[in-house]
Amino acid sequence: MANYTTKDIKELRELTGAGMMDVKKALDEAGGDRDEAIKIIRLAGQKSLAKREDRSAAAGLVAADITDTDAGQVGVLVEVNSETDFVAKNEKFVAFADSVLAAAVSSEASTLDELMAATTPEGKTVKEAADEMAALVGEKIVVNRIARISGEAVTKYLHYSNKDLPAQAGVLVATDKAGAEGAQDVAMHIAAYQPQYLDRDEVPADVVAKERDTLEELTRSEGKPEKIISRIVEGRLGAFYKEICLVDQDFARDPSMTVGAFMKSTGGKVTGFARFHVGA
């Protein structure tokens, strides 16, 4: 008879994020010794790392940090993924994500490659820590992306779509000092309305050209007179900008004005933003 209880299984499963059968198997092999069982689970995970490469890691969390600087503030946003929500809410995984965020902040990484090579507070590279976490929980673990923005002021917003899970969406908003007062409302707007660009100047020329070509083709197919096609297309481009540009979008808190108009009413302006949503 195995020298462990149902409580032992539950605790080890919560500690490692491993499946019930994997936990029972490890405890059986370890004769009920929890520390030895953890080693067995970790070793089994290391052996199966290659097998998990093709799996989808669409669960996980978003974490953010804001640091004061001489010039203002810097915000960092990271997304860390797992295969299942069960692992995403595990304390070990959350602590790992916090460690990744700390490495991103201390290293001043701005690209994923820089982040993966950065050192965590525990003295390992982020890549090494990710591999260890994958081995421990038996799932594919991905440090997916990082964003770093700076400004006179930076505001963060983390959205929890499920009370049982960590933050599934995160937003950073950079503003001038005057705009800081309204930045939280703008951050919440960004989380919900998902703008792709700050303003029209940020939209790449090739994106605009492609949309203009599509609108011209659509307008001609509707039988519109050639002499007014360009005017119709420009009007429709305005709707396109309204969909993808933050300052052109109707403000969530007051749709009678745009986000740009709202910020102008505060005497400030948005200078940049970043938005992550888990798995998107």
Structural description of this entry:
The protein has 280 residues and is α+β, with helices and mostly antiparallel strands. The chain has three domains: 6-47, Helicase, Ruva Protein, domain 3; 59-200 and 246-277, Elongation factor Ts, dimerisation domain (Tetrahydropterin Synthase, Chain A, 2-Layer Sandwich); 204-244, GTP Cyclohydrolase I, Chain A, domain 1. The protein is 46% helix and 22% strand. The protein has helices spanning 6-16, 20-30, 34-47, 85-88, 91-107, 112-117, 126-137, 183-193, 205-221, 226-244, 259-266; strands at 59-69, 72-82, 142-151, 153-159, 169-175, 250-251, 254-258, 270-277. It has a three-stranded antiparallel sheet. The two termini are 47 Å apart. The model has no long low-confidence stretch (mean pLDDT 91).
SSE arrangement:
Elements: H1 6-16, H2 20-30, H3 34-47, E1 59-69, E2 72-82, H4 85-88, H5 91-107, H6 112-117, H7 126-137, E3 142-151, E4 153-159, E5 169-175, H8 183-193, H9 205-221, H10 226-244, E6 250-251, E7 254-258, H11 259-266, E8 270-277
Antiparallel strand pairs: 1-2, 2-3, 4-5, 5-8, 6-7
Number of helices: 11
Task: Give the topology string: H per helix, E per strand.
Answer: HHHEEHHHHEEEHHHEEHE
- Per CATH, the architecture of the largest domain is 2-Layer Sandwich
In what range is the share of β-strand residues? Answer: 15-25%
Under CATH, the topology of the largest domain can be stated as Tetrahydropterin Synthase, Chain A
Q: How many domains would you count in the coordinates?
A: 3
Summarize the amount of helix as a percent range.
40-55%
Radius of gyration: 24 Å
Indicate the structural class: alpha+beta
Output the strand order for the largest sheet.
Answer: 1-2-3
| Biggest beta sheet attributes | 3 strands, antiparallel
